[in-house]
Design brief:
The complex is a heterodimer of chains A (516) and B (159). With 516 residues, chain A is mainly α. Helices cover 64% and strands 1% of the residues of chain A. Chain B has a five-stranded antiparallel β-sheet with strand order 1-9-8-3-2, with no helix packed on it. In chain B, strands 4-5-6-7 form a four-stranded antiparallel β-sheet, with no helix packed on it. Classes of the chains: A mainly alpha (516), B alpha+beta (159).
C-alpha cells in the first residue's frame, strides 16, 4: 500500500481498527477454521489445552462401550466443583466462630448461594462415584498394562486426592456432622497407637500422635484444624489434582491412546469405511524424531487408518459428556439440599455420628478395630491397587471387558463370593458379637488382627489365590480380588449407611431407632 | 579405550579420572542434600510448638443431691465425676477408640459412634475400644474438687 502515492496512514489506522476482532481471532487460531484434515490437526496441536489430546482418535476409543465416558465425567465434575467452590469462597469464612454462620448465610441470604452449595456438593459426590467407576473400567478392560502402568499409578493418585478433597470439604461447615467426622478421622490417624501401645513403645515412637498433631495443628479439633483443612481443600489438594490430571491426560496420548484389543482395527472396519482414507499412499516421510524415541507411538510405515480427527469427533463427544454431567449435578442440586446440622458441639456427639457415605464402609470396619479398619486394611487395598500393573504383566485380554483368563465367568463368581462372604461375616458379628463379648480379658492385639474386617479380607485373599492357581494366571487373581473388594465395599457401605443406628447398633430401618 | 602418553585425546575418549562427572555429581548431590534439609526445616512449621487449649485443670463442687454412683458432668468438660461410700473419683468420657464422647448410662458408659461399651469403672465391656476409660487425678481443694484432665491415675483411686 505504501507504494501507492495515495497512502494515508490515517486510513490505514481506521482500516486496522475495524479489522481488530478478525485479526485477534486469526492470531489466536492460526490454522483457520477446522474444515480439512490439515486444519483440524492444527486446531488440536496449535492449542495448549487441546494438545493434551492426540490429533486423531481411534474409532475404538470413541465407542461408548470402551469407556462409558467415565474419565470425562470425573473431569467435568471436577470443573463444576472448581467453579462453584470458587463462588462459595466469596462468602465462606474459615474461623470456628463464624464458619457455621457463613454457611447459613450462603444457604439463606446469598443470591443463588444455596443452589451453588448444592451443586458443589452433588458434583463432589458425582466425582467420587465416577472416579471409582472409572478405575473399575480401567481395571476390567486390563488397560493398566504396559505401556500404561505409570498412568494407572497417576490415576491411583487422583483417586486418593479426590477422596481427600471430599473429606477435607466435609469439615468446613463446622456443624455436628463435620466436627465428629473430623474427630473420628483425626483419631484414625492416631490409631497406630493401638499397635505401639500393645508393644509398649508409644513413649519413644508415637507415630499416631504425630500424625494427628500435624493434621489438627493442636491437641483438639478446633480453629487450627479448620484452617488446615480449608488450606488443603481450596489450595493444596486442588493444585495436586490439577497437576496429576495434566500428566494423566498427556500420558494417555503418549501411551498410544486408550488400550484396545489386538483386533480393534478389524472390529471397527465397518465404521471406518465411512471415513475418507487419511493417506492414499504409504507415508513417504521418514519420522526422524521417531527414530530416536523409544516405543511405538508414531505410526511409522502405516497410515493412521481407523482413526478420525479428534476435532470434532472426540471433542464433541467430550462436550456432550460435560453437558450431561452438568445437567445431572444441577438436577440433583435442584431436588436435594446439601445437609447442614446443628452447630458443632464438642461435648455431645451426633448419635449416630456418620462420615460421608463413601467412608461408611470404612467406618463399619473401624467399628471392629480402629487401626486395622482405619489404616491397616485401607493401606493394604491402596498399596495393592497401585501395584496391580506391576503384579499382573500378562498380555491376554488387554482392552477387552473382563479380558484375560477366567473372564466374565470368574468375575460373576467373584461377585457372589464377595457379597456372600462379607454379608455372612457381618451377619455373624451382628448376631453373635465378637471375641471381646465372649472373652472379656482378651488382649487388644488379638482383636486388632482377628476381627470381622480382617476375616473378610482373608477370605478374599484366599479366594483370589485359588483363582491364580485354578487359571494359572495372575490376571485371574487380580480379577477375583478386585471384584471381591468392590463387592465388600458395597456391602459394608450399605450396612453403614442404612442399617446402623444410635450407638452404631444394628437396626433394620431408621424408623425403628429409639427416640433420642 | 586405553591412551598412551603424548597421544592426542579425543574429547569423546573416557577420561582416566572423570573429573567433570565427579564435580557434576558432587554438585548435584550437595544440591539434593540441601534440598532435603530445607524440606525438613520447612516441615517444622506445620507442627505447632504451642497448642492453645483450655486449661486441663479445673475446680468443681458436687451437688449435695448427687446419688451414689450417679455421674456428674461438669459443664463444658468431658469428664464424669462420681461419689460413693469410699470417696470421689473422675473418669474421662473420651472414648479410647476414636475420641467420641461416651454417655453415662445405667450399665456404665456407651459410645454413640462405633458402639463401644464400658463398665462403671471404665473397663471395656464391648465394642472396638482398645483401652479402658482412664481415671483422672482428683485432689481436694478446700470444699472444691480439683480435677486434672491431663493426669491419669490407677483405676480405683478415690479421694
Amino acid at each position: 500500500m505504501q507504494a501507492d502515492g495515495n497512502y494515508s496512514a490515517l486510513n490505514e489506522f481506521w482500516h486496522n481498527l475495524k479489522a481488530i476482532p478478525r485479526e485477534v481471532y486469526r492470531s489466536m487460531f492460526r490454522g483457520g477454521a477446522p474444515k480439512t484434515d490439515r486444519t483440524r490437526s492444527s486446531f488440536v496441536f496449535g492449542n495448549v489445552f487441546l494438545h493434551l489430546h492426540s490429533v486423531r482418535t481411534h474409532l475404538w476409543s470413541l465407542r461408548w462401550s470402551t469407556t462409558a465416558g467415565l474419565g470425562i465425567i470425573t473431569t467435568a465434575a471436577f470443573f463444576i466443583t472448581l467453579v462453584t467452590g470458587v463462588l462459595l469462597m466469596f462468602y465462606y469464612k474459615p474461623y470456628t466462630d463464624v464458619a457455621y454462620q457463613s454457611i447459613k448465610d450462603i444457604h439463606f441470604i446469598v443470591p443463588t448461594g444455596r443452589y451453588m452449595r448444592n451443586i458443589h456438593r452433588w458434583a463432589a459426590n458425582v466425582m467420587v462415584v465416577a472416579v471409582i467407576l472409572h478405575m473399575a473400567r480401567a481395571f476390567y478392560t486390563a488397560a493398566y498394562r504396559h505401556p500404561r502402568e505409570f498412568n494407572w499409578f497417576i490415576g491411583w493418585g487422583l483417586l486418593v486426592t479426590t477422596l481427600a478433597l471430599s473429606f477435607t470439604g466435609y469439615l468446613l461447615p463446622w456443624d455436628q456432622l463435620a466436627y465428629w467426622a473430623i474427630t473420628i478421622g483425626a483419631n484414625i490417624a492416631q490409631s497406630p497407637r493401638e499397635i505401639t501401645d500393645a508393644m509398649g513403645i508409644t513413649e519413644f515412637m508415637d507415630i499416631g500422635g504425630l500424625q494427628r498433631e500435624i493434621l489438627l495443628g493442636s491437641e483438639v479439633v478446633g480453629a487450627e484444624a479448620l484452617i488446615r483443612f480449608y488450606l488443603l481443600h481450596v489450595m493444596i489438594l486442588p493444585l495436586v489434582l490439577a497437576g496429576l490430571m495434566a500428566v494423566h491426560f498427556w500420558r494417555i496420548r503418549k501411551d498410544g491412546g486408550l488400550a484396545k484389543p489386538k483386533d480393534a482395527d478389524e472390529r471397527v472396519a465397518d465404521e471406518a469405511k465411512e471415513f475418507y482414507p487419511v493417506f492414499t499412499d504409504q507415508p513417504a516421510k521418514t519420522y526422524q524424531l521417531a527414530a530416536i524415541v523409544k516405543g511405538k507411538t508414531p505410526a511409522v510405515n502405516s497410515g493412521p487408518e481407523h482413526t478420525v480427527p479428534s476435532m470434532p469427533h472426540l471433542f464433541y463427544a467430550e462436550l456432550g459428556v460435560l453437558m450431561l454431567t452438568t445437567l445431572i449435578c444441577v438436577g440433583l442440586a435442584f431436588i436435594s439440599d446439601a445437609p447442614l446440622k446443628e452447630l458443632a458441639n464438642p461435648l455431645v456427639p451426633e448419635n449416630p455420628a456418620k462420615a460421608p457415605w463413601y467412608f461408611l464402609g470404612l467406618q463399619e470396619i473401624v467399628s471392629f478395630s480402629a487401626f486395622m479398619g482405619g489404616i491397616g486394611i485401607p493401606m493394604l487395598c491402596i498399596i495393592g491397587l497401585g501395584l496391580i500393573p506391576f503384579l499382573d504383566r500378562e498380555k491376554e485380554g488387554t482392552g477387552e471387558w473382563f479380558g484375560g483368563p477366567g473372564g466374565w465367568r470368574l468375575v460373576k463368581w467373584s461377585i457372589a463370593v464377595g457379597f456372600v462372604s462379607s454379608i455372612l461375616v457381618e451377619a455373624f458379628a451382628i448376631r453373635f458379637g465378637w471375641l471381646r463379648e465372649w472373652f472379656p480379658d482378651i488382649p487388644q492385639l488379638v482383636i486388632t488382627f482377628v476381627n470381622p474386617g480382617t476375616v473378610i479380607t482373608a477370605i478374599y485373599a484366599a479366594f483370589s489365590i485359588w483363582a491364580v492357581k485354578r487359571f494359572n494366571s495372575t490376571r485371574a487373581g487380580a480379577l477375583a480380588l478386585f471384584t471381591c473388594f468392590l463387592a465388600g465395599f458395597i456391602v459394608l457401605t450399605v450396612v453403614g449407611t442404612y442399617f446402623r443406628g444410635p450407638n452404631w447398633d444394628f437396626y433394620w430401618s431408621p424408623s425403628s431407632w429409639p427416640g433420642h | 579405550m586405553t591412551t598412551h602418553p603424548g597421544e592426542k585425546k579425543s574429547r569423546f575418549d573416557p577420561d582416566p579420572i572423570p573429573r567433570r562427572d565427579f564435580l557434576g555429581l558432587a554438585a548435584l548431590g550437595s544440591m539434593a542434600a540441601a534440598f532435603v534439609f530445607a524440606v525438613f526445616g520447612m516441615l517444622k512449621l506445620p507442627k505447632a510448638a504451642v497448642s492453645a487449649t483450655l486449661s486441663k485443670k479445673f475446680n468443681v463442687s458436687l451437688p449435695d443431691t448427687l446419688l451414689d454412683g450417679e455421674a456428674f458432668i461438669p459443664p463444658g468438660r468431658n469428664v464424669a465425676v462420681f461419689r460413693d461410700a469410699e470417696g470421689v473419683y473422675a473418669i474421662s468420657t473420651v472414648c479410647t477408640h476414636l475420641g467420641c464422647i461416651v454417655k453415662a448410662s445405667g450399665a456404665g458408659f456407651d459410645c454413640p459412634c462405633h458402639g463401644s461399651g464400658f463398665e462403671k469403672d471404665g473397663t471395656v465391656r464391648k465394642g472396638p475400644a482398645p483401652k479402658p476409660l482412664p481415671w483422672l487425678k482428683v485432689s481436694r481443694n478446700g470444699s472444691l474438687l480439683n480435677i486434672d484432665e491431663g493426669t491419669t491415675v490407677k483405676s480405683g483411686t478415690r479421694v
